[in-house]
Design brief:
The complex is a heterodimer.
Chain A lengths: L2 H7 L3 H18 L5 H14 L9 E3 L3 E3 L2 H11 L3 H13 L3 H5 L4 H6 L2 H13 L3 H8 L6 H10 L5 H13 L1 H12 L2 H4 L12 H18 L4 H15 L4 H23 L5 H4 L2 H31 L8 H4 L7 H13 L6 H28 L1
Antiparallel strand pairs in A: 1-2
Helix pairs in contact in A: 2-3, 3-16, 4-16, 5-10, 5-15, 5-16, 8-9, 8-18, 9-10, 10-11, 10-21, 11-18, 12-18, 12-20, 14-15, 15-16, 15-21, 20-21
Chain B lengths: L3 H35 L1
Classes of the chains: A mainly alpha, B mainly alpha.
Chain lengths: 378, 39
């Protein structure tokens, strides 16, 4: 009868910790509504992969030989082999994005660029603390505020911390409504937050909307060839949306494809949440550094706009719009709108913030590409 | 310092690359807008 409690006796303390981590992620998803589409599968997957001799990961069984586990197979095929799952998800994300407000006000592209600085400042800090450069870069990319980019970069660089990085990336994306207001208030006054920006909806021609994703792909691909998969698939999704002749495919990309990939991605990434790899002191450091990355993104974005305003005195941008240059769309733009209205109830910044926010989506995938390009060149 | 130098190099190249891409894209969008307005 020993076989009945062998499994229970084989549980290690690290695995027990992971059951709590999994439960916490499920609780955050269900009770708090934090990115439930990813945190719930990750939480449940964390429990699945940490059950002793779990059948969802490859096992060597006496008398039978190697048995394959479905989660490990999904990870090997969907992430390790070619980062297929995060890249395919980008088609859906690209199909969801309306670049109209950004195309009407191209200078807000710069906000997206500036807000990626948190990534590199965090890489600096992580390197100084003692992480090797590949791990530091994988940790820093949490600041891209983009789950698929974080997973892809950390996987391509063979980081030892894919699991904690994925958990940090998605958790902090969900916490943007808490993290960003605090970071923005550190570097702005109420008067600055109350700065009004008139908005006139400019029309963007269909030709521009169609040429835009093609131009972005070519330019990003020529400057940073490693970004072609990320940027290319994001822009492919957007092109499907904007061409006007593929409505069914656009709807499929935005709905069924995005949902299917999201469903699989969360539970697949839980393979990297096995106890021996996850329950380490470094995991806590990574969670702390991920928070630092998000805060620095917002702070640098705001400061950049303040500097920009020195050169365009007649056409100032509310500094908070700089913080919207992170990729967490649409949460970040809603945060900026809310903060603007708290400072001045007549202040409507949503469309400007949305423009900076979608710029951040492009900038974050370019950031992932340039980080990878650095390693390919060295 | 040995640890930080490559990270600094990555930061310089990375931010330069991101700004270069975004500025080029912004310029192309601005030109397309001007061409559309002319029509």
């Amino acid at each position: 009868m020993e076989f009945l409690w062998q499994g229970l006796l084989a549980v290690t303390w690290r695995q027990a910790v992971m059951y709590l981590v999994g439960a916490a992620l499920i609780w955050l998803a269900v009770k708090k509504g934090f990115e439930p589409a990813l945190l719930l599968p990750m939480g449940f997957g964390a429990i699945l992969v940490n059950l002793p001799l779990s059948g969802v990961v490859d096992q060597m069984t006496q008398g039978i030989g190697e048995t394959r586990g479905i989660i490990q197979w999904l990870f090997n095929v969907g992430i390790e082999a070619s980062e297929a799952l995060p890249i395919l998800l980008f088609i859906g994300i690209g199909a969801m994005i309306d670049f109209g407000p950004l195309l009407s006000n191209p200078k807000l592209f710069l906000c997206g660029a500036a807000a990626q600085a948190g990534i590199f400042l965090t890489i600096l800090i992580a390197s100084a603390i003692g992480f090797d450069l590949k791990d530091a870069a994988s940790i820093g990319i949490i600041g891209a505020a983009d789950g698929p980019t974080s997973i892809l970069v950390s996987q391509v660089l063979h980081s030892n911390y894919v699991g904690p990085i994925a958990v940090a990336a998605y958790s902090y994306m969900a916490l943007v409504p808490i993290i960003q207001p605090a970071a923005i208030k550190l570097v702005t006054s109420k008067k600055e937050r109350a700065m009004r920006m008139p908005y006139t909806a400019g029309s963007v021609s269909r030709r521009t909307r169609i040429l835009f994703p093609i131009a972005v792909t070519v330019i990003a691909g020529l400057v940073a060839p490693s970004s072609v998969a990320l940027v290319g698939f994001l822009m492919f999704g957007n092109l499907i949306r904007e061409c006007g002749v593929l409505t069914t495919l656009s709807n499929t990309a935005q709905n069924e494809l995005a949902n299917l990939i999201t469903l699989l991605l969360g539970i697949t990434i839980s393979f990297s949440m096995q106890a021996e790899r996850f329950v380490r002191w470094e995991t806590l450091m990574i969670l702390a550094l991920g928070l630092v990355a998000f805060v620095l993104d917002s702070v640098v974005g705001v400061l950049f706009v303040k500097v920009m305003n020195l050169f365009t005195p007649g056409n100032k941008i509310n500094p908070m719009v700089g913080a919207a240059g992170i990729s967490a769309f649409p949460m970040s733009s809603r945060v900026i709108e809310k903060l603007g209205q708290q400072a001045d109830p007549q202040n409507h910044l949503l469309m400007h913030a949305a423009a900076a926010n979608v710029s951040g989506q492009i900038a974050s995938v370019v950031a992932g590409g340039v980080v990878l390009q650095y390693f390919f060149n060295h | 310092m040995d640890r930080i130098t490559p990270a600094l190099e990555m930061m310089g190249q990375g931010m330069a690359g991101i700004f270069l891409v975004l500025i080029l894209i912004a310029l192309i969008v601005a030109i397309m807008k001007k061409l559309d307005n002319k029509k």
